[in-house]
Amino acid sequence: MSTNTDSEIVTSIASDPEVRAFINQQVQKLKPYLIQSGTCGVKIDVSKDSPSKKMVSFYYTVDNEVIKAQAEHEDVFQATIQARKNMQEGLNKLINSVDDIAAYTHRKKPTSNSH
Fold first, then answer.
1. What residue ranges do the domains of the chain occupy?
2. d(C-alpha 19, C-alpha 6), whole Å
3. For the segment 82-115, what is each residue's pLDDT rounded down to a tens digit?
4. How open is the CA angle 97-57-98, to the nearest 5 degrees?
5. pTM of the full predicted structure?
6. pLDDT tens-digit readout, 5-16
C-alpha cells in the first residue's frame, strides 16, 4: 500500500473541479471588500500539526502589502469557509479603521468669525 505525499494530496484537492468552483464562490463573496487594484489568491496545504487536516489560506495583495487569513479543518470545504470568514473579518476591520482615520482627518475645524 503506497501513501500519498503531502504534495500529491494538495495537488489532488486543488485540481478537483468541485473544490475549485467552491473556492471561486468564496472569493466572490469577498469581492465587496476588495479594491480593483488588489489581487486575491488561495493556497491549500496539508496542516503541519495534523496531516489529516487541510490548511486553506487566502491572500490579498494591494500596493505590495499582503493580508493573509487561514484556517484548518479535516474538510477542505469547511477550511475554505472559515478562511474566507477570517479574511472577511480582517478586511472589515481594515475598512473600518480607514473610515475612522478618514472621518478624523476630514472633520471640520472650527472657523474664526473675526471680521
1. 6-106
2. 17
3. 999 999 999 888 878 765 665 556 565 555 555 5
4. 10
5. 0.77
6. 777 767 778 888
